[in-house]
Design a protein that fits this description.
Blueprint: H1 2-8, E1 10-13, H2 16-32, H3 62-72, H4 74-85, H5 88-97, E2 120-123, E3 128-131, H6 140-155, H7 158-179, E4 180-182, E5 189-191, H8 216-235, H9 238-248, H10 252-264, H11 289-295, H12 302-308, H13 327-330, H14 333-342, H15 350-362, H16 371-379, H17 387-402, H18 416-430, E6 433-435, E7 439-442, E8 452-459, E9 462-469, E10 472-477, E11 486-489, E12 492-495, E13 501-505
Parallel strand pairs: 7-11
Antiparallel strand pairs: 1-8, 2-3, 4-5, 6-7, 8-9, 9-10, 10-13, 11-12
Amino acid sequence: WDALWSMADFIIDGDRFAQKAIRLHIYHLLVTASPHNKDIDTGLPARGLHGEAYRGHIFWDELFVLPFYNLHFPEIARAALMYRYRRLDAARDYARENGFKGAMYPWQTANDGYEETQKIHYNPVSGDWDPDLSRKQRHVSLAIAYNVLNYCRSTNDREFMHKYGAEMMFEIARFWASIAQKSDDDNRYHIRKVMGPDEFQEKYPGAEEGGIDDNAYTNVMTSWLLNKMIHLYNDFDNEKLKDIQDKTGINDQEVEKWKDIRDNLYIEFNDDGIMAQFKGYFDLEELDWDKYRKKYNNIRRMDRILKAEGDSPDKYKVAKQADALMLFYTLSPEQVKKALNQMGYDVGDEIEFLKKNYKYYTKRTSHGSTLSYVVHAAIIKYMKDGQDASNVCFKHALESDIYDTQGGTTKEGIHTGVMAGTIDIIVESFAGIELFKDHFALKPSFPDHWKHAGFRIHHMNRTFEFAFFNDEFKVVSLSEYEEPFYINYNGDKKELKSHDTITFQMKNH
Ligand code: IFM
């Protein structure tokens, strides 16, 4: 435990609750997966190993969990990705069974890599078993490709990329290229009958079949992924190119076709420039939020309330969790704008674009998933004067399991996504650390009442220690290395030599 804590601990002075909750989160993450299980064929279960919720299944929550492991125990992140690699053939089968090419990972998976998602779901408000269409969340495959790229960016593990990662990503890209269909009506590609991260919107109102069309998160991430894969393919040296062609049968013509899809995926916008969560979203009815707030104590699970009243969440602009806004969690506002430009949409200033989408969707979100506050807390960092709102969302996220804010779910199992997500907010949003191959860029902005924050991270096989105070921060290098490494604070770039310390004075913490 000493060895684990020395790498994983976060010290927070000035916020006793945050200190306690973050340590609780680290503890549960390490019980779920630590260097002791790096050789065991297991994924990262959404509910840890503390109860039987979701039957131990693995979902897309790895997207929220793996950053903790990338930065503290990269061998665990690798092991979780290897769990996915060993199930690549099952994902290929799943794609084929559904009429697609490439690899389509199941929404929920366990031992053999096949779909485990339940078909009915218990509603404790009504006592009924309702149909559950959540397996339509195909975006889990995007999360896996995204996780591979992030792991490799943080560790420079070229062996993993070469032997396993590239094959998974090319097969996933191929799946998206096959599900995207070009329409003669608008000459654009459409991804139909899927669900986005918002699990309330399972289908169009009154529809028999599950899924909605052109989920903005899915379409933008698909265009982003295809772009990455086109570049990766073109940058491969001959040996790697041959290897990936032998493994997947991919060729120049197929990758050329991906360019057309990347550039022409469809997104619906309204007149105010808000991205539609999916095609037709703006036709849905507005929910009378006040009515439900008055009537029910807790409206986070609006889906269950509406269904119990004989109504349906499909009819309303009501989201369980960040959906269109998820884009700003996985990508920076600049990357979102760039991806949309590539698809032929000009969204103007990226921060204004984020702000108006944030304002629009946050009002229509009930935060029925603990992941929702993580996303909201993390993305507010991009908005000037957003710190207070971010602190509120961060606090809600911290409270999720320690206070069991969903009213009974924690005893069935903790939520690894929110646990790791809150830790990541400290690193990426509060400390504002951006990782590059040869440097860190920092934009620290901690809650005012925090007097000190300290933690360690691994990056590119090196270990660094950070200590933030109100008016200065220090970075200590704890590893032996020769290639120069820099710390960039507000354009002031200093070299951090092996086993050395640099201190920066901060203007506003
Ligand atoms: O993956 C999540 C989903 O986003 C929200 N419902 C619970 C799932 C498992 O944690």
